[in-house]
Design goal:
Shape: flat
Number of domains: 7
Number of helices: 12
Radius of gyration: 37 Å
Helix content: 10-25%
Distance between the termini: 127 Å
Number of strands: 58
Strand order of the largest sheet: 11-10-12-14-15-16
CATH superfamily of the largest domain: Peptidase S8/S53 domain
Mean pLDDT: 90
CATH topology of the largest domain: Rossmann fold
CATH class of the largest domain: Alpha Beta
Largest sheet: 6 strands, parallel
Strand content: 35-45%
Low-confidence stretches: 1-25
CATH architecture of the largest domain: 3-Layer(aba) Sandwich
Length: 936
């Protein structure tokens, strides 16, 4: 071959060098594995497992004499032999063949290290065999051939020599990945989705939250909790937050409205790190399960990863969503990517599964958070697949994706009356994601930031194909690209068979995708990242080439031309009878602008910063954003130098209650938003809670004449009344107890208040608080807080003296809810007060009795004296100093001894007969007070 182009020569030489280096690296790794896993290291009597080195083709052939149980590389594997009588013939085809020791059955974190703990994951070859029926082993849980057991580590080591055991791992305890303090439903376009598709809300579907139990009594889950025998007995706020993000109703406040706010919720204990039983997903109608927890950095394909891949195989519509973890600043100490700072730090081997979705976290402005765990997976696959909003960790990011998955499932089911395959939902989420960080796919953000609106739009447009293919087969699908298209994305996804546990590569069935321009016959291949174990390689941009590693493959054609195109799928290497798959495709168009937030259903928070969001495909330029607070009569410039393609802008909204509208000027055009409300949360109060009625009141909002009152029905807040006042009294005959209030702004409801239950606000019938305290040196101060003024005739403060009452304060024209009254005629000892409220309807309301202890110049007071036989004796002390009160008879016999544990103490002395007694008060054994006590 003659090459004349020097650039081509350099490229070919470079490729040859890379191939030689990688081949040498692979051969060196094979040699290390042979040294480590041959039986000469550790004996395993009568083994059926052998370490075999051969050409890749030998392992690809169908063979009934042996089966591969672990692959170390393309050419090296552990095989299980079935028929030893034929072994002499078979063995001649291998370059190296020795009995394998049992080290191959362990993950990197256990090989050659001390074993600790009492819980282990065991994978068996045959679950019908009595391998685990030992008296020192307790079976905790199992899924198919995967078991979690409890046993002493030394007992578990003996299982390694059992021919039925193919994998043992330490079962690490999971932990939640931080609690979220805030939520922004605009980042992933969820708020826009709620506006454009109000009927797509998760209705009829159920999400399982696998961790500790959420608060099933939370008002945002009312009527939608599905009780489960799988739930943890331990309740945790983290789980409640995850449930709120996924499916909260928004009854508590607008921030409590989740992504799929009408879906049902159930719980599963994450003490079981394996999937739930297939029948349990069916029994509880679970179509999405959220996993916001981790177990530490683990870079291998463990039994739990294989189990989750099998879970999706057995439940073809089930979506498992995992948080990537919060260890993005840490470095792995095992696996191919050992020692590479900031990469390969996913928290849990189960996150290495192929058929799940792993989610990292970003902030509101699409910055990947430093603590968000990064990929690649242990074998170089793309992880995480997506990112979503989650400023305090990847937990909330996973919850958002779980919610969007529910919306996609409902949209598909509403049209076709059955759930979509998991591969289709995953493909839509990945292909419609917004690019963040590096261009196209990368090991930090995967395919990008999830875009709920775009995913639903493509679902409803029918831009997807589901089919199946056999080994060696090719299938073609034609699509037409219009003249105004600027970018085509096509993505192939399939639910792959579980890989070999602990294998060097997880992929089993290998499919390929190509896009062909039917006019020019030009072929486009998927984008593939460089997975070579060095930081420089992992940070390179992807290149177009055949992908033999991932079960998701995406083609991106930037400047696509109008015409007909063919999407070609090839069954490159399929070990099963056939492989089902999903294809999704989409294209962007030129000169497009859409406001995403706020929409007509949104409210911008007055007096605070709000993030505007839009979608624009016009050429990049500086643009002006303006806002109108008076229905378009006047416009105020917010910024004149924002790039129209950034898609967001953070601004301060003025403190007001009004309608607002935005416009952005770009390409010499104005693009106007919907009209939205601007308001802030009203402060609400309970005026009174009487036997037959209650009263609510709230702040007067400037310029607002009407208010909507919402009450909670069986599940959601619904409009109950509209009134022009800021006070509303209701009869208790309607039985509603939970309410919220919102201003009505030119016919549109503004931001609703916090939801509240009027029966739990500490307000009685007009009275909120009545408290009495000593005001040194010699006064009592009485604090009065009313719930309402309306309907009160007068109030009075009464002082109770010897079963009589003395009025110390009266107010016949109450005009304030909170005030204080003083009494400067204190009696030595207990001073008892109560508040009287006289209503205009003739009813009288009394408060509980409040007391003030007054000792005058004394340190102690003992009363009453004389004491009636059978009465309690009462002791007041100025300070708490471990005082001991004692009573003696006239002959010196001690009859009563009691520690004075409070400033006011009541001491029973029922055994004292009439007569004269003496008392002392001791402090650390020293008498500090004494006196005579007369009992009548």
């Amino acid at each position: 071959m003659h090459i004349t182009n020097p650039k081509c020569t350099a490229v070919i030489c470079l490729l040859v060098i890379v191939f030689i280096v990688q081949s040498a690296y692979a051969q060196d790794e094979d040699f290390k594995s042979i040294q480590l896993f041959s039986q000469k290291t550790l004996r395993q009597p009568d083994t059926n497992y052998f370490l075999a080195l051969a050409d890749k083709s030998e392992f690809s052939k169908s063979n009934t004499n042996f089966k591969i149980v672990r692959r170390f590389s393309k050419n090296l594997a552990v095989i299980k032999v079935f028929n030893k009588s034929l072994w002499n013939v078979t063995s001649q085809k291998f370059k190296h063949l020795t009995p394998a020791n049992y080290l191959w059955k362990m993950p990197p974190k256990l090989s050659g290290r001390a074993w600790t703990g009492s819980k282990f994951i065991v994978q068996l070859w045959d679950s019908t065999q009595p391998t685990l029926q030992l008296k020192h082993i307790k079976l905790l849980i199992h899924y198919k051939n995967y078991y979690i057991i409890q046993a002493d580590s030394e007992v578990v080591k003996t299982l390694l020599e059992d021919n039925n055991v193919v994998f043992i791992d330490k079962a690490t305890s999971p932990s939640t990945e931080l609690v979220l303090n805030g939520m922004d439903m605009t980042t992933n376009k969820v708020s826009t989705t709620h506006n454009l598709y109000p009927d797509i809300n998760g209705d009829g579907l159920t999400v399982s939250i696998k961790e500790n139990l959420f608060d099933t009594t939370d008002v945002d889950f009312t009527g939608r909790y599905v009780s489960s025998a799988l739930a943890s007995p331990q309740m945790q706020s983290h789980a409640s937050i995850m449930g709120t993000i996924i499916a909260g109703a928004g009854n508590s406040f607008y921030a409590g409205k989740g992504v799929a706010w009408k879906s049902n919720l159930t719980s599963s204990d994450f003490a079981n790190l394996l999937p739930d039983a297939d029948n349990d997903y069916l029994r509880y109608n679970v179509s999405v399960q959220n996993h916001s927890y981790g177990t530490g950095i683990e870079n291998y394909y463990g039994a739990d990863a294989a189990a989750y891949d099998e879970s999706v195989i057995n439940n073809p519509s089930l979506i498992h969503v995992f948080s990537s973890g919060n260890s993005g600043d840490q470095t792995s100490d095992t696996g191919m990517y050992k020692g590479i700072e900031g990469y390969a730090n996913l928290t849990g081997s189960f996150k290495m599964a192929k058929n799940i979705i792993t989610v990292g976290s970003i902030d509101s402005f699409y910055h990947i958070l430093p603590l968000s765990s990064k990929g690649p997976a242990y074998d170089g696959r793309i992880k995480p697949e997506l990112v979503a909003y989650g400023t305090d960790g990847s937990s909330g990011a996973a919850a958002i994706i779980s919610g969007i998955a529910l919306l996609l499932q409902q949209s598909f089911k509403d049209s076709l009356h059955h759930l979509p395959p998991a591969s289709l939902v995953k493909a839509l989420l990945l292909n419609t994601a917004d690019d963040v960080d590096a261009k196209h796919i990368d090991f930090k953000s995967g395919y990008g930031s999830a875009n709920a609106v775009r995913a639903l739009k493509e679902m409803k447009a029918g831009h997807f194909i589901t089919d199946s293919i056999k080994n060696g087969q090719e299938k073609n699908y034609n699509i037409h690209i219009p003249a105004n298209a600027v970018q085509l994305k096509a993505l192939l996804c399939w639910t792959d068979l579980p890989g070999l546990t602990n294998s060097y590569k997880a992929l089993v069935n290998d499919l390929d995708i190509e896009v062909i321009n039917n006019n020019t016959e030009k072929k486009f291949l998927p984008l593939v990242l460089n997975s070579y174990p060095s930081k420089d390689s992992l940070e390179k941009f992807p290149k177009e080439m055949r992908d033999s590693l991932n079960n998701t493959e995406q083609i991106v054609i930037e400047n696509i031309s109008e015409g007909d195109y063919t999407i070609k799928i090839k069954g490159f290497d399929i070990t099963s009878d056939n492989q089902s798959f999903s294809i999704v495709y989409q294209w962007d168009t030129i000169n497009r602008f859409t406001w995403l937030y706020p929409t007509k259903a949104d409210n911008l928070y007055a007096g605070d910063f709000n993030t505007l969001r839009w979608d624009c495909s016009y050429p990049a330029s500086n643009s002006t954003i303006e806002i109108s607070y008076d229905k378009g009569e006047h416009w105020s410039t917010l910024t004149s130098d924002v790039s129209n393609v950034t898609g967001f802008y953070n601004l301060l909204i003025k403190d007001s209650f009004c309608l607002g509208q935005l416009r952005l000027q770009t390409a010499n055009q104005y693009f106007y938003s919907d009209t939205f409300t601007i308001s802030k949360r009203l402060n609400t109060n309970v005026g009174y809670n009487c036997t037959d009625s209650f009263l609510l009141y709230w702040d007067k909002a400037q310029g607002i004449n009407n208010y909507n009152i919402y009450s909670l029905n069986s599940r959601y807040l619904e409009q109950f009344a509209t009134i022009s006042d800021t006070t509303a009294a209701f009869s208790k005959s309607n039985n509603a107890t939970y309410f919220a209030i919102a201003p009505v702004i030119d016919g549109k409801a503004g931001l609703a208040s916090y939801g509240f239950d009027y029966t739990t606000q500490g307000v009685g019938c007009y009275l909120k608080n009545f408290l009495a305290d000593l005001l040194p040196p010699n006064k009592a101060i009485l604090h009065i807080e009313l719930g309402a003024i309306k309907g009160i005739k007068f109030i009075s403060v009464q002082k109770l003296i010897n079963q009589q009452s003395k009025i110390v304060y009266t107010n016949n024209s109450v005009d304030t809810l909170s005030f204080a009254v003083t009494d400067d005629s204190l009696l030595q000892g207990l001073n008892r007060y109560r508040l009287q409220i006289a209503l205009q309807n003739g009813n009288i309301i009394y408060s509980d009795i409040q007391t003030v202890n007054y000792l005058s110049n004394s340190d102690y007071i003992v009363f009453p004296n004389p004491l009636q036989s059978g009465q309690l004796i009462k002791v007041l002390t100025k300070d708490l100093n471990n005082n001991v009160f004692e009573i003696y008879s006239s002959t010196g016999q001690r009859l009563v001894q009691r520690t004075l544990s409070d400033l006011y103490n009541e001491i029973p002395v029922r055994l004292l007969s009439a007569g004269i007694y003496f008392y002392t008060i001791r402090q650390q054994g020293r008498i500090v007070n004494r006196g005579k006590l007369l009992v009548q």
